[in-house]
Amino acid sequence: NAGVTQTPKFRILKIGQSMTLQCTQDMNHNYMYWYRQDPGMGLKLIYYSVGAGITDKGEVPNGYNVSRSTTEDFPLRLELAAPSQTSVYFCASSYTNPGELFFGEGSRLTVL
Amino acid sequence: RKEVEQDPGPFNVPEGATVAFNCTYSNSASQSFFWYRQDCRKEPKLLMSVYSSGNEDGRFTAQLNRASQYISLLIRDSKLSDSATYLCVVNLPGSARQLTFGSGTQLTVLP
Known about the structure:
Shape of chain A: globular
Oligomer: heterodimer
Distance between the termini of chain A: 36 Å
Strand content of chain B: over 45%
Helix content of chain A: under 10%
Structural class of chain A: mainly beta
Helix content of chain B: under 10%
């Protein structure tokens, strides 16, 4: 079972570059989330979606954008990367809210 | 005051020991509570939900104290494989954005 798949696992960006983190889930979950985790900190919610075509901001949305064109995919777009966006990014999905979150393996992003 | 607070540890305990973690939350309207486990450089995974009546899963016991606004996790007969960071998660009703993670408590079980 694939579950939640994130790509890439690692990426180094230069300041000002843009990129997209991909996230796909095969569990037919309506709810999907993007979190970032900084060292020694809890996960912070960036954006979430309650279903295809619906997205909303989380706690730390600045500098990011998302789209949800299908139930399976929830890509996260970083525009004009900044060093403050160096972090580990986790995509997650859940069948209900609240409910068990299923996380991808994470994407480690470094902005230099 | 942080919305969800945990003692970061580290807790270093010998194999076979009993260890307990607490997590306090600031919003009395919080309704759902969870413990997640995160291994080093891995994704978090659900360990257990926390119910009002308390719940037990093998060596793990979770309890909720609404009056004092904290949840606890008790691990009995610690195993080396229990070494991980334990994340407290609290959910407010009505919105996915209100799922709040604590910063985690690091546990190392020593041989």
